């Protein structure tokens, strides 16, 4: 099982491709049981808030593609983490056709904004709700088609963890888990599901069964693959916000240690009356890595940009490089636990670069 992360604009736009263990390292198209998530695409134009006088941002480096039409396939899910234009970019998203087969998952403010464009079929836009460990329906689930009628299906889950009292709406974490369909193609004795013999594909994706949770009866032969977990939090959020999700959902899914953290390296601050902390940077990322023993940490929201306007005139930034973060990880390691500087990969991707996590 593997996850390939491709940076599209060197900032916060990523294409995540999850692949099952039986998938070859390189093959044309997506292998059955694979799943793709496009995160916060911003490929063209500038990102403007209110007016250019207040805030306008332009990237210095061009993205690796200029349009979503250049993707090999439409992604299964387009994930929008907030309503700000460098994450929820109308010009980029509307490059997709109105009848796109992709499912758009967005935070409440972003979903409302996208519906207001009246470009997409409303049925393909879904609003993420705040994660609640006591409410299973607060997790968005997609069941992945099994390889054979009697094998176990896989599952993708997505959960939103917003910061408390975040007036700016910048700070949240989104958890993603991927469990591929069982790679045992022949039926195992004693393994059975509450699925029909030939489960139909859902309208949203040919690789899924439905977005409704199904009860899987455990097999004595443990007919189930391992689960890979991702936390996406480009602006950062306190680990206290993630803790309930980690201690309940990730534990129940056996999805720890965390496979990947996507989080800013650089810390960005504004005066309190202009939003205060903009990006938690490495100090916040280190807290998450320490608690979840993340195997990899990829930089987000750290690309060189041209920021103009009243909202950024007093902005202050503290940049952190890969070597400095590795040193901080080494210093923060517990003497009785794993040495984080050896355990966690620290990666910064330029537009078009990819990084593979796990074994294919």
Describe the structure.
This protein is of the alpha/beta class. It has one domain. It has helices at 90-93, 108-117, 239-252, 281-292, 322-332, 340-343; strands spanning 2-7, 14-19, 35-39, 47-49, 55-59, 77-80, 103-106, 125-127, 140-144, 154-162, 172-179, 208-210, 228-233, 260-263, 267-269, 277-279, 296-299, 305-308, 316-318, 345-347, 354-358. The strands form four sheets. It has an eight-stranded mixed sheet. Strands 8-7-6-3-2-1-21 form a seven-stranded mixed sheet. A three-stranded antiparallel sheet has the order 4-5-18, with no helix packed on it. The longest helix has 14 residues, at 239-252. The termini are close together. The relative contact order is 0.16.
Instruction: Kindly estimate the percentage of residues that lie in beta strands according to DSSP.
Output: 25-35%
Taking all Cα atoms into account, the compactness measure Rg is 20 Å
Largest sheet: 8 strands, mixed
What is the number of helices? 6
Integer average pLDDT = 83
Q: How do the strands of the widest beta sheet line up side by side? A: 12-9-10-11-13-14-17-20
- Poorly predicted parts: 185-221
The separation of the N and C termini measures 5 Å
Helical content (DSSP H or I, runs of 4+): 10-25%
Annotation, overall tally of beta strands: 21
Q: Which of globular, elongated, flat, extended, rod-shaped describes the shape?
A: globular
List descriptors.
8-stranded mixed beta sheet, 360 residues, globular, alpha/beta, single chain
């Amino acid at each position: 099982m593997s996850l390939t992360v491709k940076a599209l604009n060197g900032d916060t736009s990523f294409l995540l491709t999850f692949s099952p263990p039986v998938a070859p390292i390189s093959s044309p198209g997506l292998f059955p049981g694979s799943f793709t998530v496009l995160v916060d695409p911003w490929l063209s134009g500038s990102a403007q808030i209110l007016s250019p006088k207040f805030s306008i941002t332009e990237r210095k480096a061009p993205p690796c593609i200029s349009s979503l039409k250049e993707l090999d396939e439409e992604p299964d899910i387009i994930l929008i983490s907030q309503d700000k234009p460098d994450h929820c970019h109308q010009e980029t998203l509307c490059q997709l056709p109105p009848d796109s087969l992709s499912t758009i998952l967005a935070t409440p403010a972003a979903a409302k904004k996208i519906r207001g464009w009246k470009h997409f079929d409303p049925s393909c836009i879904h609003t993420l709700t705040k994660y609640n460990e006591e409410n299973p329906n607060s997790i968005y689930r997609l069941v992945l088609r099994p390889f054979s009628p009697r094998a176990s299906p896989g599952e993708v889950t997505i959960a939103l963890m917003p910061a408390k009292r975040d007036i700016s709406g910048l700070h949240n974490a989104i958890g993603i888990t991927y469990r591929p369909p069982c790679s045992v193609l022949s039926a195992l004795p004693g393994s059975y599901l509450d699925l029909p013999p030939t489960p139909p594909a859902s309208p949203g994706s040919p690789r899924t069964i439905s977005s409704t949770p199904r009860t899987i009866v455990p097999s004595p032969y443990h007919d189930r693959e391992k689960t890979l977990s991702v936390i996406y939090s480009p602006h950062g959020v306190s680990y206290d916000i993630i803790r309930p999700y980690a201690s309940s959902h990730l534990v129940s899914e056996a999805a720890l240690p965390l496979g990947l953290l996507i989080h800013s390296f650089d810390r960005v601050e504004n005066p309190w009356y202009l939003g205060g902390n903009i990006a938690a940077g490495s100090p916040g990322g280190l807290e998450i890595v320490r608690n979840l023993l993340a195997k990899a940490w990829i930089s987000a929201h750290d690309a060189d940009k041209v920021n103009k306007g009243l909202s950024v005139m007093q902005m202050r930034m503290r940049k952190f490089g890969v070597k400095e973060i590795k040193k901080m990880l080494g210093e923060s390691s517990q003497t009785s636990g794993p040495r984080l500087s050896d355990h966690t990969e620290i990666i910064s991707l330029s537009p078009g670069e990819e990084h593979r996590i796990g074994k294919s």
